[in-house]
Amino acid sequence: MMQTTRIVNVSRRSLVLGMGAGGLVLAVGLPPRGRSQEAPVEFGADAMPNGWRDDPNVFVSIDEDGIVTVTVHRAEMGQGVRTSIAMVVADELEADWDRVRVTQAPGDELRYGNQDTDGSRSLRHFFDPMRRAGASARTMLELAAANAWDVPVAEVRAEGHVVRHASSDRTMSFGELASAAAVLPVPDRDGLRLKDPASFRYIGKSDIGLVDNDDITRGTTTYGIDVRRDGMLYAVIARPPVIGGRVASVDDRAALQVAGVERIVRLDPPAIPAEFQPLGGVAVIARNTWAAIKGREALVIEWDDGPHGGYSSEDYKAELEAAVRTSDGKLILNRGDVETALAEAPTRVVAEYYIPHLAQAPMEPPAAVADVRDGSCEVWACVQAPQVTRLRLAEQMELPEEDVTVNVTLLGGGFGRKSKPDFVLEAAMLSREMGIPVKLTWTREDDLHHSYYHTVSVERLEAGLDDAGKAVAWLHRTAAPTIGSIFAPDPKEKLPFELGMGLTNMPLDIPNVRAENPQAPAHVRIGWYRSVSNIPHAFAIQSFIAELAEAAGRDPRDYLLEVIGPARLIDPSEIGDVWNYGENPDRYPIDTGRLRKVTETVAEAIGWGREMPSGRGLGLAAHYSFVSHVAVATEVEVVDGQVRIPRVEIAIDCGAHVNPDRIRSQMEGAVIMGVGQALTTEITFHDGRAQQGNFDSYLIPRMEIAPRDMNVHLVNSGGYDMPLGGVGEPGLPPVVPAITNAIFAATGQRIRRLPVADQLRS
Amino acid sequence: MITLTVNGREHSFDGDPEMPLLWYLRDELGLTGTKFGCGMAQCGACMIHLDSYATFACITPISMAEGSEVSTIEGLTENGDHPVQVAWRDLNVSQCGYCQAGQIMQAAALVDSTPDLTDEDIDMVMSANLCRCGTYPRIRAAIKQAAQARAE
Ligand code: FES
Ligand code: FES
């Protein structure tokens, strides 16, 4: 029974061409299709791989008891998408919310449209298609009723789960009409009557309970880690601690003696760049998770670390600092004449900011169940990107895509980690080897040691102020390893989408602006982490603006508003960002009026300018990301070097609101995550190895540090005429600088290195 | 042979006595409501009641539960109507929900055992439970609502 085997990564595709091969990178990484070519330009959902669908037959079903089932094709990871999409469909359908259920779509983009749940796009891209799906289904029910009564369809109206013929006072329920409606043709998109927003029952309302509330509070939900299949075995993997490393030797005799261990399997490392390929290592397959973990502890492995075994965070920080102190970097923005303006400025200010690696650390670590046998592959997994998961499985298993099924479970948090299906591929490789279902679980140590880490950055800013203290020159150098490094061999410059996250699209009212991107090689897997490059950019820029205010002897709020400048609409491509989160700049311009408004809202809410007791201070920051405008104001108290954050005000203008309660909860969560990033959260490397392995050293915030007084302001500047902005990510970037700016106000100490940790202890 | 009661049902187990209750519940009994988050008493995702005390299942060997009553989120109430569960739904506390079984088990023990809860009590006890989604403000509010309901 017990034996050791060895399997190799079969996938050896050219990953240089992998940029966009699975759609995922294209989706987040490149300018909208056609921009640089002759083809017509596409934006938004149109530009996403496999676009959108609005077919009611795909998304809505109604049974004869009248139960409406909405199929949600986007992954639920806490943003509330299952509830929000169901609200949209149910509203247009005129369904009674209590009779609406939700089912989760498997990965199948030809059927459902794009399913990559990242980039704060689900409602932004699917509000309109889901409205149409609901409205089409409603129209079909009305037509079925009109046919049954032999009256003109214009005389009937669906309302509250029935269709009514007012003049004859007849009604038929949705359940009675369901089968007749189902065989009717789908109405033409163009003639479709959408509801007047004034009559929305659910959209925009704050009192809608989450569709998963009952299961969550009773423990009956199924996340990836919870899936069980008959005859299933349990696996954990010992992976090379350094990216690009491999097993030099393994002694598995003791591991095979552990009760419950069934087999040890060697996995070869992937070719570099690894994209989403598993890291290789040694898998232990056992009759339960505990036995697998114990078996892994008993393995004696020597690792060959490969080229990144020397990676150390302290040394790398020095490398990045050296890089931003030269002018060798790639020129990415150049407006006016920064050199002359700096030379002539009576006041010059320079600051460098360091933002460390982070790990997403979703509360549910990566986990998946796979069943690969008899020429088919079925997985159950907590994936943000089911379609790319399916594609990579098909390649890895050498099966046609039709024979690969990706069942999407609930995600116990994602934050970008679960956009990468490496863990699902691992489960599939092991199941194929065993010929039975295998559940692969990542322990917390696995998660923190082998993440796709948030990048590490040094941002150097230099500004020239005129006699009045106004900023007239701005030079920004940014150095950070790129996410592109998981897709291409050793790129060293940031991609346009990374720069477009709060750097090249900064609406600065400054005449001379220059930005450069010195090179920075990657030594670990770099990946998306909630709000991505906005994290370092917002921290540096919003800190620096406060530093300029200080240098100019001005109030930081007034100065921030002055740098944002007067209310105006900016086409991001005109200031140097061709990406604009994939959206049409005409529909989604940067609106400095909205940015000012959220800033003024939080400043007023926190009582900006009031007298503060000693050791207390207020801080402010504003940031535009994911086509939403957000500002944060904090009140901070520092006692004996210890930071408390008693109060936070956060305002978002994300256009039209679908589910205000979930917008609020995303802002609350962003504040908490930002508190951690400001104060404690950091991954460091030594000898190529992540130094934090669990929550005793990777310090994400606990309740004791959560602000007691937190208020979310939803600033809506135009109702349903406004296109929707992102919600899941844009709350986070301004939180950290708002905190560190408040720390400066409280203590006079400027935080230029994150996290604060013990920097304030004397 | 270890015998114990889980959610009112008797079980016996003759495997590794060191196996943490967490894995016994999840893998052997199929009670997956109890979650794994860290395996070292750092996150509270695995919180259960052992003889009605909130306990980290991930560091409690099954041998320690010999003769004990274990209750998990699935067995907290029959109908999901513990005041804590009700408050959690009323306030839409959950985001991803993954930590919430542990939060609810911790909060239920707190609310059931402490009559006049202060903000400090809540922060101190609930700081054993991590939530990466950042639901702490609503957890605080829900516990207060549940405590109120308990008192009435
Ligand atoms: S899994 Fe037990 S405390 Fe984290
Ligand atoms: S709700 Fe997601 S970890 Fe708490």
TrEMBL record, chain A:
Superkingdom in the source lineage: Bacteria
InterPro entries to which the protein is assigned, alphabetical: Ald_Oxase/Xan_DH_a/b, AldOxase/xan_DH_MoCoBD1, AldOxase/xan_DH_MoCoBD2, AldOxase/xan_DH_Mopterin-bd_sf, N-heterocyclic_Hydroxylase, OxRdtase_Mopterin-bd_su_IorB, TAT_signal
GO molecular function, one term: oxidoreductase activity
Pfam family, one: MoCoBD_2
Domain Aldehyde oxidase/xanthine dehydrogenase a/b hammerhead: 218-307
SMART domains: Ald_Xan_dh_C (SM01008)
Protein name in the entry: Isoquinoline 1-oxidoreductase, beta subunit
UniProtKB/TrEMBL annotation, chain B:
InterPro entries cross-referenced by the UniProt entry: 2Fe-2S-bd (IPR002888), 2Fe-2S-bd_dom_sf (IPR036884), 2Fe-2S_ferredoxin-like_sf (IPR036010), 2Fe-2S_ferredoxin-type (IPR001041), 2Fe2S_fd_BS (IPR006058), Beta-grasp_dom_sf (IPR012675), Diverse_Oxidoreductases (IPR051452)
Keyword Zinc: no
Keyword terms of this UniProt record: 2Fe-2S, Iron, Iron-sulfur, Metal-binding, Oxidoreductase
Name under which the protein is recorded: Isoquinoline 1-oxidoreductase, alpha subunit
Hydrolase in keyword set: no
SUPFAM superfamilies: 2Fe-2S ferredoxin-like, CO dehydrogenase ISP C-domain like
GO molecular function: 2 iron, 2 sulfur cluster binding; metal ion binding; oxidoreductase activity
Record organism: Roseivivax sediminis
Annotated 2Fe-2S ferredoxin-type domain residues: 1-76
